[in-house]
Amino acid sequence: MTKPTDLSKFRKSVTKNIGGISEGFNDPKIWLDTGCFALNYLISGRFDGGIPLEGKMTLLAGESGSGKSYIASGNIIKDAQKKGIFPVLIDSENALDEAWLQALGVDTSEDRLMKINASMIDDVGKFISNFVIEYKAEYSSVPLAERPPVLFVVDSLGMLLTPVDRDQFQKGDMKGDMGRKAKQTTALVRNVISICSSENIGLLATNHTYESQDMFSPDAVISGGKGLEYASSVIVTLQKRKLKEDDAGNKGSEVHGIRAAAQVRKSRYAKPFEKIEIKIPYDTGMNPYSGLFELFEKKGLIQKEGNKFKHTFKNGEEVKEFRKKFTDSILDRIMLEYEEPTPLSPVEFDEELEEMSDE
Hints:
With 359 residues, the protein is of the alpha/beta class. It has two domains: 266 residues, 3-Layer(aba) Sandwich (Rossmann fold), CATH 3.40.50; 68 residues, 2-Layer Sandwich (Rec A Protein, domain 2), CATH 3.30.250. Strands 3, 4, 5, 6, 7, 8, 9, 10 and 11 form a nine-stranded mixed beta sheet that branches. The chain has a three-stranded antiparallel beta sheet with strand order 12-13-14, with no helix packed on it. The longest helix is centred in the middle third of the chain and has 19 residues.
C-alpha cells in the first residue's frame, strides 16, 4: 500500500514565505441584510442572508434614484453596525448627508462609522490599501476569527475621477480618458479583493448603468467595463419605476415612492438572473416583506384560486385569503418552512431523462 504523502512542512513554508498567498477556503460566515427578505434570498439562497462579507465584492448597479444608496449606505450599513461590523463609507458623490443616513437608522458617530469623501480613484485605492496594511499589522497576532470585521462601502464607483479627467478639466480640454477609467476601476477592485481575500473585510460598491443599444442583449449595461463584473462575487442591478400605490394598495396618479425592479445578475450562492420588484415608499421606506409574496407565488408555494390565494403548510393547514390578507406573520411561517428542492443525483437525473425519452 502506498504511503500517504505528507506535505504539511511544504505547505507551511510556502504560505509563510510568499506574500499574497493564503491557504484554505474563504466561504462567507457573515451575511449582511439588504433590508428585504426576498432580495436576501435571491442573492444568498437564505432569507436571513444577504450580501457576503469576508473577502467578497458586491456590486449594486442601477440608474439614478433606483434605490442603490438606500440599500447600500442605509440598510446594509445599519445591519453591519447591528452585527458589530465597522463600516467605512467612501462617498464620491457628496450626496450622503448625515441627516439622511440617520433617518435610515445609521449611527453616524465616529466610533460607529468612518465617513470619507473622495473623488479620485487613486485616492480611494491608497486609502483602502493603507487602512488594510495598518489593520493587518495591528491584528497579525490575533486569530482570524477574532479579528474585527470591516465593511468598505464605495458610493459610487461611477462618480470617481481619473487623473486624466482632472487634468483635462483644468485645461478645458474634455476629450475623454480613452478607456483609462474602466481599467483603473477594475484595477482598484481587483487589488482591494486581493488584499482583503483572507481577512474579515468586505467591499460593497454602487455603480451606474446605462441603456443597452444591443437588441440581442437588452439588459442594462454596467459602467466600468467587463473586468469589474468579473471581479464581483455578487451583482444586483436595479431599475427605477414609479410607485403609484398608497399604503392601502390603492392605485392612482400620484407618485408615492420608487418601485425598484431588482435582478441578481451574478451570484455564487444562488441561481442568477432571478428578478423581484421592491417597493420603497417615500414616507415609510422599504418594507422587509416587499416582493416576498410574489416570490412565493413564482415558486408555486402560493397558488391563485379565483379571487383568493392559497398556501398549504407542512402540517396540512391551509390558508386561503385575498392578497392583502397574507400578513407578515403568515409569510414568516412560509419562510420558516421553505426549503429548496434537493438537486437530483447523477443516477436520478439519468433515470428522469430516460423516462422523458420513453414518453
